[in-house]
Design goal:
heterodimer, A: about 230 residues, alpha+beta, Ubiquitin-like (UB roll), Fumarate Reductase Iron-sulfur Protein, Chain B, domain 2, 5-stranded mixed β-sheet, elongated, B: about 120 residues, mainly alpha, 3 helical TM bundles of succinate and fumarate reductases, 5 helices, about 0% strand, membrane (chain B), SuccDH_FuR_B_TM-su (chain B)
């Protein structure tokens, strides 16, 4: 039997959070962590967590699994269980709404700051704005972000200053538009990033790279932004 | 709320560059002094005094002191704005951090003026 310990907190009932222990029979299968949560929810319907696509695309079920942020739906027990024990907590650093569900308002506020959309005020061509294969290739490793918040909530700089530091996810997206040949607002975007907090609170500890379930590298993107800021003083 | 008024510079790029360049200057100074002392194991006071009276050495020392001052300012400011905040310590943190920032800047400036006085004399 697998020992599963889950963070529980219902602010309408509980004075403070606590860890609830469950015994779970895996029947010898290497299930995903989300499968375990789903089966435990049948046993205890009051358990609350987010999930949607259950295949690592929607980014809804980001949780802290045995100390490491990840998506419950694509994290197998063989990776997550340590010493016959599985510990599931909400993503750290953001307020808990209930059990494993966090309030992601601060995360989305930072995402909104970087203007995550194409800015190009020139007249739109008849069909589409074209890119060379080389220009398009610059977006690889950037556009795949699913905004699960695993990276930003693994970042101490984001924990300490979530209202000022954009965070790895937002900065990866910021560079996605800075690197896009079709976007014409590069100078405007950079001018909004050259303060001591937005980009430069990243100290390069690479927690974000370690936890990204899509294998992306926000630290590298942040380095590119830093280089652009140095080459283009605002 | 954490602000940037007491930051070394209002520009993140400048802070970042100063931090890196000052680290290189301090490293160069430490390496030079270490090599010099290893190459002169029986150094006399006269020899040490002569080295430090050279204009180039005094400029190097002054540059290193300025590097220590700026490096410390940026580094300590980052630590204070990370850990001495309302989020971590409650509502009194803002005033505590501002007092600590003023103290930090005062100490750094006093050390810098003191170092200039030692190197150049008034």
């Amino acid at each position: 039997m697998l020992n599963v310990s889950i963070y529980r907190y219902n602010p309408e009932v509980d004075n403070e959070p606590y860890m609830q222990d469950f015994q779970f029979d895996t029947q010898g299968k290497d299930l995903m962590v989300l499968d375990v949560l789903e089966k435990l929810k049948i046993e205890d319907p009051s358990l609350v967590f987010r999930r949607s696509c259950r295949e690592g695309v929607c980014g809804s079920d980001g949780v802290n699994i045995s100390g490491k942020n990840g998506l419950a739906c694509i994290t197998p027990l063989s990776e997550a269980v340590k010493g016959n024990s599985l510990i599931i907590r909400p993503l750290p650093g953001l307020p808990v709404i209930r059990d494993l569900v966090i309030d992601m308002s601060q995360f989305y506020a930072q995402y909104e700051k970087i203007q995550p959309y194409m800015i190009n005020n020139s007249p739109a061509p008849a069909i589409e704005r074209l890119q060379t294969p080389e220009e398009r290739a610059k977006l690889d490793g950037l556009y795949e972000c699913i905004l699960c918040a695993c990276c930003s909530t693994a970042c101490p700089s984001f924990w300490w200053n979530p209202e000022k530091f954009i965070g790895p996810s937002g900065l990866l997206q910021a560079y996605r538009f800075l690197a896009d040949s079709r976007d014409t607002a590069t100078a405007e975007r950079l001018s909004k990033l050259d303060d001591p907090f937005s980009v430069f609170r990243c100290h390069g500890i690479m927690n974000c790279v370690q936890v990204c379930p899509k294998g992306l590298n926000p630290t590298k993107a942040i380095g590119h932004i830093r280089n652009m800021l140095m080459r283009n003083p605002t | 709320m954490v602000g940037i008024a007491s930051s070394f510079s209002q520009s993140g790029v400048i802070n970042w560059l100063v931090q890196r360049v000052s680290a290189l200057v301090m490293t160069a100074y430490i390496v030079f002094i270490t090599v010099y002392l290893l190459a002169n194991p029986n150094i006399s006071y006269a020899q040490w005094s002569e080295l430090n009276s050279l204009l180039s050495m005094r400029l190097f020392s002054l540059l290193t002191m300025a590097s220590i001052a700026s490096h410390a300012w940026i580094g300590i400011w980052c630590v204070l704005t990370d850990y001495v905040t309302e989020r971590l310590l409650g509502p009194k943190a803002d005033i505590i951090r501002k007092v600590l920032q003023v103290c930090m800047i005062a100490v750094i400036l006093i050390y810098l003026v003191w170092a200039i006085d030692i190197l150049w004399g008034f």
